[in-house]
Amino acid sequence: MCTHDVPRPYRPEELTDIGGARPGAFAGAPAPLPVPVYDNHTHFDFGDSPVELRAALDAAEAVGVAGAVQVGCDLASSRFTVAAVDADPRLLGAVAIHPNDAPELALAGTLDDALAEIDAMAAHPRIRAIGETGLDYFRTGEAGLAAQHHSFRAHLDMAKQRELALQIHCRDAHTDVLATLDEVGAPSRLVFHCFSGDAELAKICNEKGWFMSFSGTLTFKNAHNLRAALAVADPALILVETDAPFLTPHPFRGRPNASYMLPYTVQCMAQLMDLDLSEMGHLLRTNTGSVYGSWSD
User: pLDDT tens across 55-75, in order?
Assistant: First the structure.
């Protein structure tokens, strides 16, 4: 269920309702969730045009999204993240160098300097995770893999030394991500951001106690592997995210995503797990707290 109202910071004045919106416009807001939850992974600094942070969080809060984890992917977005968590108590943060950026920094001879700055930012008390980090073989060729692996291992060390959660980005690289985690050891709290595996990976996560964060991709018609994974996932290990402005849930694919859209994915998860929305909300709040702690600390 959705309304025709789009939260103000996401819509230029000339746009009208959802039926008349041009392609690329933000979709209408969903009905509010009965139990507020948290967006486990989002990027308020990404997109074609900036949003006003407080207004964006107000829009999310109005539909039952109490707060979010703002995630950095490079030095600029990680610096933004540190400033954002200071600006609004509804945010916690994660900082990292994205695996696709690591090869470029390595070529420039600045990867280790960048990693050192990420580590320094991770000392902030409201930075509760290192991420997103991991391996991505979709966009990076053979020449860049060594830099990705070096960066991934450095992030793993940061998370363990600082006793922070780790948010993993994994694309077309599950085998090597698992091998690296087995070799060097995982931190005590690990999240597969935008879980893209299948039931077999979900079973491995169950055994290891690793969290699986589901995004709007779960709602896609062809996402049979994700629905199979959710069906076998330990309920105590599931989270929800937008990865906004990407991965907008069905039926709004093609429009930008935002934290206020999170209830669409929560509704899908509740249906697939045969839970009412209140039960789903309580489960997600408990799991999110287990990973990141309290937003009020």
Answer: 899 999 999 999 999 999 999
